[in-house]
């Protein structure tokens, strides 16, 4: 219920993206700016992350914890490119590529170039949210 109320507020304020493509663009900007609040607002309460070589990250609280740790240790400089986008009334998917890198506070650089699949769902207020995200690097 809380997510729905926040979604209504953000939609009325024009803050949440109204299309899957706009959501991906917002995520790219927020990831690159280490903007935790914007990133977390883009995820559904029951969203899951499927990171490479890691356990599943299930639920918004777990996703928030992962991002807090990630943003504390690194800075991302990347762009997302869409290879395929499919949308229905309440569900959508985006398949695409990540081009860029992540730089750790100690200076270590990680190449992020790879691919991803994002599943999205529209909430009762009409806003799109990430329901699942899986990615891996081209190594």
Question: Which short descriptors sum up this protein?
Answer:
single chain; 139 residues; alpha+beta; Nuclear Transport Factor 2, Chain: A; 7-stranded mixed β-sheet; 32% helix; 43% strand; disordered N terminus
Give an overview in words:
By secondary structure, this protein is of the alpha+beta class. The protein has helices at residues 2-12, 20-32, 36-41, 60-73, and strands at residues 43-50, 57-58, 74-87, 91-104, 109-111, 114-122, 128-137. It has one domain: Nuclear Transport Factor 2, Chain: A (Roll). It is built from 4 helices and 7 strands; from the N terminus they run αααββαβββββ. Strands 1, 2, 3, 4, 5, 6 and 7 form a 7-stranded mixed sheet that branches. The longest helix is centred in the middle third of the chain and has 14 residues, at 60-73.
Integer count of domains: 1
State the helicity in percent bands: 25-40%
- Give the structural class: alpha+beta
Provide the low-confidence segments as ranges: 1-14
Question: What's the oligomerization state?
Answer: single chain
**What is the C-alpha radius of gyration, as a whole number of Å?**
15 Å
Please trace the helix and strand order, writing H or E for each element.
Answer: HHHEEHEEEEE
Cα(first) to Cα(last) distance is 41 Å
The CATH architecture classification is: Roll
CATH topology: Nuclear Transport Factor 2, Chain: A
CATH class: Alpha Beta
Mean pLDDT: 90
What fraction strand? Answer: 35-45%
Number of helices: 4
Q: Largest sheet, if any?
A: 7 strands, mixed
E-strand count: 7
Q: What is the approximate shape? A: globular
